[in-house]
Design brief:
Layout: E1 10-12, H1 23-32, E2 43-47, E3 53-60, E4 63-70, H2 89-97
Parallel strand pairs: 1-2
Antiparallel strand pairs: 2-3, 3-4
Length: about 110
Amino acid sequence: MFSLGSSHNYHFYRKSCDMRKSFNGLSGLVKNELNREPTSGDVFVFLNRNRTHLKLLHWERGGFVLYYKRLERGSFTPPVIKEDQTSFTTQLVLMIEGITVKKSVQKLRYSH
């Protein structure tokens, strides 16, 4: 069952990743390079060099889940993430669906 949503924390691995890596290899990258605990319940996002393959590593109760998407044509556009930004769920969904936002303007709203 696909159980990822906006309630999870997502972490993007900024370097290219060897897509031959599976649970143990990706967990090692999470622990050694992202300095995060792979079993925390957070979701870790990996892209290959050509940005045609995407893997999501997630710990659920009882074990790891690996989501994998391979594009037959085109490539993923990595999200623009600020250093202090922890959530990029919307950008991740847009990236997976192949949607690139060229310009976005946020309108002023009343704040109480």
